[in-house]
């Protein structure tokens, strides 16, 4: 009898986990390792019901100066709930193999304060789950600094090429649309 009662908390935890996964949009299911940290970013806990910009980055790309503009956008819209996630990738052969170098470029050289992950695959069958869903909802990144604007329901509002600067009016308008979107709970 005691053994059966011990199984109840484990069962409740399992059911709770399934309910949380069901409440979480497909895009945000899973986690990614945080750049130069021992922790992971639980995408659902961090970004559910929040407007989000996801950018695949590369330290040695000619578009790397966009980090400054992305940080400016982050600071401008953070009070309105915007979250930003940078995902370094070597898919286009322009990212360091040393995550300390990647962190230096992001944090020291460009003053990035938004979350950055350890380098991930962002294209093809072995792309991380986040980028597989982004590609399914819009398209796969064609180069570094491809930008995705995601609404509070986990749906891509718009995606932008590397050529689109962070202060581009269309990019800003997409962010404002994502901020104005209703959360899943409503």
How are the SSEs ordered, and which strands pair?
Layout: H1 2-23, E1 31-33, E2 40-42, H2 43-47, E3 52-57, H3 66-77, E4 83-88, H4 99-109, E5 115-116, H5 129-137, E6 147-150, E7 156-160, H6 169-180
Parallel strand pairs: 3-4, 4-5
Antiparallel strand pairs: 1-2, 3-6, 6-7
Q: What is the correct CATH architecture? A: 3-Layer(aba) Sandwich
How large is the count of helical segments?
A: 6
Task: Tell me the strand order in the biggest sheet.
Answer: 5-4-3-6-7
Kindly name the structural category. Answer: alpha/beta
CATH superfamily: Glutaredoxin
As a whole number of angstroms, the C-alpha radius of gyration is 18 Å
Beta-sheet strand percentage?
A: 15-25%
Shape: globular
Per the CATH scheme, the topology name is Glutaredoxin
Order of helices and strands, N to C?
HEEHEHEHEHEEH
Mean pLDDT, rounded to whole units?
90
Distance between the termini: 42 Å
User: What are the low-pLDDT stretches, counting only 5+ consecutive residues below 50?
Assistant: 5-21
State the domain count. Answer: 1
Report the strand count: 7
The proportion of residues forming helix, as a percent range, comes to 25-40%
Per CATH, the class reads Alpha Beta
Task: Summarize the main sheet.
Answer: 5 strands, mixed
Describe this structure in words.
The chain has 186 residues and is α/β, with parallel strands linked by helices. It has a single domain (26-180), classed as Glutaredoxin. 38% of the residues lie in helices and 16% in strands. It contains six helices and seven strands; from the N terminus they run H-E-E-H-E-H-E-H-E-H-E-E-H. The chain has helices at residues 2-23, 43-47, 66-77, 99-109, 129-137, 169-180, and strands spanning 31-33, 40-42, 52-57, 83-88, 115-116, 147-150, 156-160. The strands form two sheets. Strands 5-4-3-6-7 form a five-stranded mixed β-sheet, covered by helices on one side. Strands 1-2 form a two-stranded antiparallel sheet. Strand 3, helix 3 (66-77) and strand 4 form a beta-alpha-beta unit. The longest helix has 22 residues, at 2-23. The radius of gyration is 18 Å and the shape is globular. This is Glutathione peroxidase. GO terms for molecular function: peroxidase activity. Keywords: Oxidoreductase, Peroxidase, Signal. Belongs to the glutathione peroxidase family. Residues 1-21 form the signal peptide.
């Amino acid at each position: 009898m005691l053994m059966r009662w011990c199984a109840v908390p484990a069962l409740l935890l399992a059911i709770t986990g399934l309910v949380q996964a069901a409440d979480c949009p497909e895009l945000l299911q899973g986690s990614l390792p945080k750049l130069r940290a021992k922790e992971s970013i639980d995408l659902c806990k961090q970004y559910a019901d929040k407007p989000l910009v996801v950018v695949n980055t590369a330290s040695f790309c000619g578009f790397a100066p966009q980090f400054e503009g992305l940080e400016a956008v982050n600071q401008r819209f953070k009070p309105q709930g915007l979250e930003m996630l940078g995902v370094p990738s070597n898919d286009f052969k322009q990212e360091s193999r040393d995550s300390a170098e990647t962190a230096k470029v992001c944090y020291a050289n460009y003053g990035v304060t938004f979350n950055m992950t350890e380098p991930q695959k962002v294209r093809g069958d072995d792309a991380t789950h986040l980028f597989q869903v982004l590609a399914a909802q819009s398209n796969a990144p064609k180069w570094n600094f491809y930008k995705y604007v995601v609404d509070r329901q986990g749906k891509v509002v718009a995606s932008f090429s590397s050529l689109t600067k962070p202060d581009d009016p269309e990019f800003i308008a997409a962010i404002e649309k994502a901020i104005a979107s209703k959360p899943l709970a409503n």
